[in-house]
Specification:
By secondary structure, the chain is α/β, with parallel strands linked by helices. The chain has one domain: 3-Layer(aba) Sandwich (Rossmann fold). It contains 7 helices and 9 strands; from the N terminus they run αββαβαβαββαβαβαβ. A 7-stranded mixed sheet has the order 5-4-3-6-7-9-8. A two-stranded antiparallel ribbon has the order 1-2. Bound molecules: S-adenosylmethionine. S-adenosylmethionine (SAM) binds next to strand 2, helix 3 and strand 4. The site of S-adenosylmethionine has 27 residues, from strand 2, helix 3 and strand 4.
């Protein structure tokens, strides 16, 4: 993708020698899967927003220690959130990505991370649909950066309610750009622990505005913050 088509590097890539930048509208994310049409876009999460939300989650008195949680990025794209999660001592980090080209990019980024000696916990990218994904035993922290529309979100939440039915407190959700949060509100069994804005750092705001200003059709917007929420499954569904 050329700069004219919306590719502008984010400083996260320059600082870390990886490639996670760019904005790819959902209509260009073709994998051949029937859920392609529900895909919002590819865009890497702002590191400052991710770190702020994770800090906030740690203050919510999670049911287990951070090192006992598996971190699962649903809609992992090129793996930026996975790399950021790797800064913390999770039990493991898993990314699920529908688009094979993005999944391969994430795989390359993980290899660079590994080569640099920065992989401290098992990290794995799975190429496939979120609705087919397996969730590991033990406490899970599921991350969404607005990957898909309401219908996929609703069906995934129903699945989570079944998988975690007898596991109260073992599922927390971090949701950045929480456009489908009504779906979580309507899925019985989840309690909202936080709803509010996480601000982008100045550097992230400049980078993201530049990427947005460069997009071909001007359909996506970046503010200086992201609407976010944190949810906990209490198993009462
Ligand atoms: C906004 S990007 C988020 C990227 C990454 N989580 C991050 O924060 O850097 C959303 C991603 O969700 C993926 N996606 C959309 N629908 C999906 C589905 N049904 N299953 C798995 N991934 C999906 C898209 O291909 C896209 O890469």
């Amino acid at each position: 993708m050329s700069k004219k088509e919306g590719y502008t590097p984010h400083p996260f890539d320059a600082e870390n020698g990886v490639q996670t930048s760019g904005l790819i509208p959902g209509r260009y994310l073709k994998s051949g899967h029937k859920h392609d049409r529900h895909s919002t876009a590819y865009f890497g999460v702002s590191p400052s927003v991710f770190r702020a939300l994770l800090r906030r989650w740690k203050r919510t008195n999670p049911a287990a220690r951070v090192k006992d949680f598996a971190f699962i990025d649903v809609g992992a794209g090129m793996g930026r959130a996975m790399l950021l999660a790797g800064e913390h001592s999770f039990r493991q980090v898993i990314g699920i990505e529908l688009n094979p080209i993005l999944a391969r990019a994430a795989q390359r980024n993980l290899a660079i991370w590994k080569e640099a000696g920065r992989v401290r916990v098992p990290m794995q990218i799975v190429c496939g649909d979120a609705l087919d994904a397996g969730f590991p035993d033990g406490p899970c922290l599921v991350f969404f950066f607005n990957p898909f529309g309401a219908s996929v979100m609703r069906r995934l939440l129903k699945r989570l309610a079944v998988v975690f039915a007898d596991r109260p407190g073992q599922l927390d959700i971090l949701y950045v750009n929480n456009e489908q949060e009504l779906a979580i509100e309507r899925q019985r069994g989840f309690t909202r622990l936080f709803h509010g804005k996480e601000r982008r750092s100045r550097a992230d705001a400049i980078a993201d505005h530049r990427i947005m200003a460069n997009q071909p059709d001007g359909e996506y917007a970046a503010a200086n913050y992201e609407d976010c929420s944190i949810w906990r499954w209490d198993g009462q569904s």
